[in-house]
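mind reviewing both lines:
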Amino acid sequence: MSGDADATPPSGASLAPLSEDERAELAALRARYPARHRLRSAVSAVLITLAALLAPLSAVAVWVADDMANTDRYVRTVEPLASQPDVQAAVTDRVTDEVMKRVDINAILSQVAPDKRAEVKAALGALNGPITSGIRDFVRQTVANFVASDAFRTLWVQLNRHAHAAFTGALTGNSNSAVKINGDTVTLDLAPVVAQVKQRLVDRGLTVASKIPEVHTDFTLVKSDDVKRVRTGFRALQLAGNWLPVITVVLAGAGVLLAARRRRALVTAALAVAAGVALLGIGLSIFRIFYLNQLPANTNERAAGAIYDQILHFLRGTVRTVIVLGVVVAIGAWLSGSGKWALRVRSVWESGITAVREAAGLRSTGSVGPWVHRHRHLLQWLVVLAAVVALLLWSYPTGLVIFWIALVTLVGLAIVQFLDDRQQGGGKTAAAP
């Protein structure tokens, strides 16, 4: 029955008028249901908002747990920097300066015969500067050749493995014998690089380099005061790395299930999560500018930028992945709806597949067609489920991976549509899930 409660009943029906109590009860029921829907919608909006707010934090937590707190993944992340030209140039300058501090003209002249030493000094005179510059160029070329070698790449991996141990050890309280914590500073000893260069200088004829003492160059990683401030947050993100994304998805899913219009809520949730993570990506780009502007004047800014980009490579990849996934889910949910434009897109989709069948001269797919038509909903959902399982089983999916999974899913749905003999099965194929 529709219409108002006291509307005129159909012909032949005899209904008694409602009593005052019945009218009051009916009014209470009418008031209760809209209120319940409003409450559910409000709770749904809150949950979806929380999911959107937690999405960027989830991405950071995954980055901390899977990249920054995992030595092997961290080393794989920074390993390409050994072949990055700006990083190679910065390392070359640093090592050259350290070597040249311990090489002087007097040491080289000591190799001259004693009876000729005074004569050579007098002959050199003002040439001392050019000779020093020449030696520096010689040392720099030797360092550059070493930095471009496979030996440096191997050493780079070892040093960064030690550096990572120092960083995580300082943040989690676990020490490592390969690093030093002096007072309020965590440092890494770069002596192995200088030692390798020293031997190469000797091999190239600069035998005075053999007299260079062992050089310990401390590279500051982090101040202990800073460690105390970020230790709690780092540890919390490390522990939350595996759970925070799950909580975010559960909140978004609960928000969608509670919504009165679930399809619209799914579109909203997917786009809200994508937007939240997109803001994180924008923030990383803005912070990069701030970070480079705060570097000391003598810092190689291009090398520092390359290191920043490489360390955040996994996090930025996660940002792109979530954005693509959110957009794909939103588009899929929208297309499966009953909106005017969604119906038009599906109509074009069906018309295109029909045109392909007609072009192939395929009027029927035999006994397969009616079977596919009867089970089309199940087959469509199986295709979607396969895509979800592939995404869940992929260790570290990228935006490109999600794009290809979505494309393969569309192909699977197109095959179901192509095999569906709608004329034999009767009726029009329902919308894809």
Observations:
- Residues 1-14, 123-127, 423-432 have pLDDT under 50 and may be disordered.
